[in-house]
Write a structure and sequence with these properties.
CATH topology of the largest domain: Jelly Rolls
Strand order of the largest sheet: 1-6-3-4
Distance between the termini: 34 Å
Radius of gyration: 22 Å
Helix content: 40-55%
Shape: globular
Structural class: alpha+beta
Number of helices: 12
Number of strands: 8
CATH architecture of the largest domain: Sandwich
Largest sheet: 4 strands, antiparallel
C-alpha cells in the first residue's frame, strides 16, 4: 500500500470507525496534518471524517470502501493495494455505539484520536496482537471474538482520552468527573425510569438547588431535569428502533403522562413523530 483515501470510511451514524496498524509504519493525514503510526497504534474516527493513509510520498489513490464485497461477511475481508516492497498492514472496522446519537456524549468526542501502544507493558498492545491471528486464521466463533476485542480496544481508547484531558471544564467528560454533576449523572443513567425530581437529586448528591443547577449549567449547558428528559428521549428512540413495544408504553417509560405530549417532545428532538421515525428506520433496514 502506498496511498489510499478514506473519503467515507463508515456511513453509520451510530458507529465509531477505527484503524489498527498490524505491521509496518505509515502516516495518517487528517485535517491537513500528518500523524505517524507505528505497529500496534490505533486511530479512531468517531464521525467518519475523511482522511488519507499512506506509506510513501505518492502513487495511485485507492478507495478501500469501494473494493469491499457487500456485507454480511462470514470472514473478515482482506484487501491488497499497491506493489511496493514496503509492506504496511492495518485492520479497519467500526464499533456500533448507540450513544453517538446522544448529543452530550457525541460532543465530548474528538474527530480523530490516536493511541500508541508502544510503551513497555501496555496491556492494550496484547489485545491488539490477539486480533491479527483471528483475522489470519478464521475459525468458528472468530467473528464474535473480533467484535468483543474491538469493543475493548475502543473503550480503552475513549478512557485514555478522558485521562488525557484532566483540565477540561465543560462537556460530558468534565461532567462525569465533577463530584456533584457526576453523581447526579450516575443516578439518572443508573435508574432512568425513576421519577427523579430536582429535590430528589439535590438530596442524593448533597447539594443545594442553586449549586446543582449552576454546576450543571456551567458544565453541560443545561439543567439536571432537562438533561434527564433528553436522556429518556434518547432511550425512547432506541426502544422504537429495537422492538415493537407500543408507543404509549414507551411514552410512559420516558416519563410522559400522555402519548400526545411524548409525540410533541419527540418531534422537537428528532424532527418527526415516533411512529414515522420507527417506520422510516424499518424501510432502511
Amino acid at each position: 500500500m502506498e496511498f489510499c483515501s478514506f473519503n467515507d470510511p463508515c456511513t453509520n451514524a451510530d458507529a465509531i470507525g477505527f484503524h489498527i496498524l498490524a505491521a509496518g509504519s505509515c502516516w495518517i493525514e487528517f485535517d491537513g496534518r500528518r500523524t505517524t503510526l507505528r505497529e500496534g497504534d490505533i486511530a479512531a474516527f468517531p464521525f467518519s471524517s475523511p482522511h488519507f493513509i499512506g506509506a510513501g510520498t505518492g502513487g495511485q489513490i485507492f478507495d478501500p470502501g469501494g473494493a469491499l464485497p457487500p456485507p454480511p461477511w462470514s470472514e473478515t475481508p482482506i484487501l491488497h493495494f499497491g506493489d511496493s516492497d514496503r509492506v504496511v498492514r492495518f485492520l479497519c472496522g467500526y464499533v456500533r455505539c448507540e450513544a453517538m446519537h446522544f448529543l452530550p456524549f457525541r460532543e465530548a468526542l474528538p474527530e480523530f484520536n490516536h493511541v500508541s501502544t508502544a510503551n513497555e507493558g501496555d496491556w492494550l498492545s496484547g489485545v491488539v496482537s490477539q486480533i491479527v491471528p483471528e483475522v489470519d486464521h478464521p475459525h468458528s466463533g472468530g467473528m464474535a471474538i473480533l467484535e468483543r476485542l474491538t469493543e475493548i480496544i475502543l473503550l480503552e481508547v475513549l478512557r485514555r482520552q478522558l485521562s488525557a484531558e484532566p483540565n477540561r471544564t465543560t462537556g460530558w467528560l468534565a461532567a462525569i468527573r465533577d463530584p456533584v454533576v457526576g453523581r447526579c449523572l450516575q443516578l439518572i443513567h443508573g435508574d432512568p425510569l425513576c421519577p427523579w425530581t430536582l429535590k430528589d437529586l439535590m438530596n442524593e448528591v448533597g447539594a443545594s438547588r442553586s449549586v446543582l443547577s449552576e454546576r450543571f449549567q456551567n458544565i453541560l449547558g443545561t439543567g439536571p431535569i432537562s438533561y434527564m428528559r433528553d436522556w429518556r428521549l434518547f432511550l425512547a428512540r432506541e426502544q422504537l428502533l429495537q422492538g415493537d413495544q407500543a408507543i404509549s408504553i414507551i411514552a410512559f417509560n420516558a416519563g410522559y403522562s400522555s402519548e400526545a405530549a411524548f409525540n410533541r417532545a419527540f418531534v422537537r428532538a428528532n424532527g418527526m413523530p415516533p411512529a414515522a421515525f420507527r417506520a422510516n428506520h424499518r424501510k432502511r433496514a
